[in-house]
Amino acid sequence: MSAPDLPAQPDLPVFDIPAEAPLGLAVSGGPDSLALLLLAARARPDRLRAATVDHQLRPDSRAEAEAAAALCARIGVPHDILTVRVEGSLQAAARAARYAALGQWCVAHSLTHIATAHHADDQAETLLMRLARGAGLSGLASIRAARPLCPGVTLVRPLLDRRKAELEAIVAAAGIEPARDPSNADPRYDRTAARALLAATDWLDPARLAHSAAHLAASEAALEWAADRALAERFDGASLDPEGLPPELLRRILLRIFAAHGETPRGPDLARLTAALHSGRTATLGPLKATPGERWTFTPAPPRRTRK
Question: Which residues bind ATP (predicted)?
Fold first, then answer.
């Protein structure tokens, strides 16, 4: 069987990946990841390696993984099938198992970057879902263009500015029949409802929503930069000068102080500690005791008393 036609315009962002470095691809066999495969094969020939994760959740999953392997063989891309076991809450557990397997695979093959096929429609759906849950800025930034996957490996999403219809057209033009995951239409999942809302609402433009998510991500990055700088200027390792800090910057600084002690406070708990300090009361949270004053002092919390 001959190789499929590759897209005429590669146009695939490569972030900071060196031109000679191999790129990993997560290829499920669905239309989005197959479009990513075709675009990458045109843009980075001979510098790719693909993997398909078989979650073993559907009878057809192995056949779909083998079909992806066969397509990769036709276009000369090395391919591996990663079989995982999923336990617990289905979608969350499948995602965790998938990324863990892909991270281990990257390390085993000396891949520093792996690309997934998340696109503008995915971004728009994610933004709507997180708005509905009352997410803060970090959550509303939605799907990041790049993030650490595991030590030494970066996950990149080069198609966040592409519409799903564009990716479907690339695959159709190549004469490939992609796999279709029935869970994408399962009404039990929030993403299915968000997708249906976008399809039924003319004034909700996925591309514009994706642009909004990108602006929010830039704002999130700016706040993170400002929080790092404020921490360095105002925290001496034991005490913090909170004077004049905007509440959001103060929250992020406190999170960093607790993170340095292995603690990630829940939002309501951190809010209670902050309110106590502002009102002049000492508060304890996790491993730290915080004492108010012109500078807030952080010391190890006393051991908890155990009942006899």
Answer: 28-33
